[in-house]
Amino acid sequence: MNSSNNLTFSNLGEEAIALLKSLIETVSFSKEEEKSADLIQDFFEQRGIITKRENNNVIVFNKFFDPLKPSILLNSHHDTVKPNAGYTKDPFKAIVEDGKLFGLGSNDASGCLVSLIAAFLVYYDQDLPYNLVMAATAEEEISGQNGIESILSQLPEFELAIVGEPTLLQMAVAEKGLMVIDAEVKGMAGHAARNEGDNAIYKALDDLNLIRSYKFQKISPYLGETKVTATILQAGSQHNVVPDICRYTLDVRITDSYTLEEILAELKQNLSATLTPRSMRLKSSHIPENHPILAVGKSMNMDQYGSPTLSDQALIPYPSVKIGPGDSARSHSPDEFIFLEEIQNGIKVYVELLDRYMHTEKS
Questions:
Q1: Of 214, 343, 195, which Cα lies nearest the Cα of 271?
Q2: Distance of CA 340 to the CA centre of its chain
Q3: Whether residue 319 has pLDDT greater than 90
């Protein structure tokens, strides 16, 4: 980082925290992010940076963008879940107490977003060996189709994506995917008093007992086991009628050891139900073992681990790592907060990570 960056660095934290406070105090539920997108867009344009807006996604490019250079994507989201009933503080008021900034989205993931934006500003007007593209995106919390996925075709290919999510500034190098499956077991209706029919609940129990202890063979070194869990069960409408249909839902968390198609085929082979996946979009990710960002992370003494939680990594078809200030354990929790110091540290880590990566000799 050169001296001109150091001159601006002292103000970056204050600017980032001010933007974070504004984001907290702006309702930005998934699919309702218009006002937070406006805030982010105004933040850049007030600094003379041209923005591109696609629905509620805001995109900016470094000043000396060159299509002949390799590109790095900086990405985090500005949508939030709805606050739960456990809040004791106003979720839409930015409250600072004991070094903590409270408010909905402070930890997940606006703290990461403003830190990435600050890092982008450091490098915006430098002639770099890489292009930097900053994308503040929508609908991450619902894996919506109008988020990161909807803008990738308008962006260059990326050598690396840095996804801002709360990881205690450690490096998640792999992430579990998700497949939600609707299952249906058919029986035959009959009168319960006369022991008639073929009870679909009992037939489904065979599946559910198998699912309860089911083990997939392959184990991921970073993500461990692929796990299938039954989460919803629906059957019957009257106490005296044997149900002819039982429906249940499976939540499958898939490691990089399997494709979604492989998991679906294995479950179909072992279960009696008809299985219909809701989506085949949310794939597991694992950055290649020889990618230079791993050596950069090690040089910065970052732990490298596999993340069980889903993010927009699942929708980014390029090598990616997930890293950011804050703690995933605080996400979606009552009285969500991030330490102000974590924002300052997040900016420094992002800047150093980019600096080392862009000036590392690639083999």
A1: 214
A2: 22
A3: yes
For the segment 265-297, what is each residue's pLDDT rounded down to a tens digit? 999 999 999 999 999 999 999 999 999 999 999
162 bridge partner residues: 74, 321
Measured between alpha carbons, how far is 360 from 363 in angstroms, rounded to an integer?
9
336 φ/ψ sector (left φ>0, alpha ψ -120 to 50, else beta): beta
User: Distance of CA 315 to CAs 85, 111, 152, 319, Å?
Assistant: 31, 21, 9, 11
Q: Which of 235, 159, 161 is nearest to 198 (CA)?
A: 235
- Give the tokens for residue 21: 């406070």
In this prediction, residue 102 carries a pLDDT of: 98
Cα–Cα distances in Å, from 227 out to 215, 223, 331, 356?
Answer: 7, 11, 22, 37
| CB contact at 8 A, 333 and 96 | no
Partnered with residue 206 across adjacent β-strands are none
Token pair 């910065």 is found at: 300
**Phi, psi dihedral angles at 72 (to 5 degrees):** -120, 135
Instruction: Confirm if 261 and 280 have CB atoms less than 8 A apart.
Output: yes
Q: Nearest 5°: CA angle at 120, between 351 and 287?
A: 65
Burial class (CB in 10 A: 0-12, 13-18, 19+), 350: buried
Instruction: Report pLDDT for 363.
Output: 54
298 φ/ψ angles, rounded to the nearest 5 degrees: -65, -35
Largest separation between any pair of C-alpha atoms in the chain: 87
Q: Which of 236, 238, 237, 211 is nearest to 226 (CA)?
A: 211
Whether the CB-CB separation of 316 and 163 falls below 8 Å is answered with: yes
List the one residue out of 175, 160, 110, 157 whose CA is nearest residue 137.
110
Q: Cα–Cα distance between 151 and 155 in angstroms, integer?
A: 7
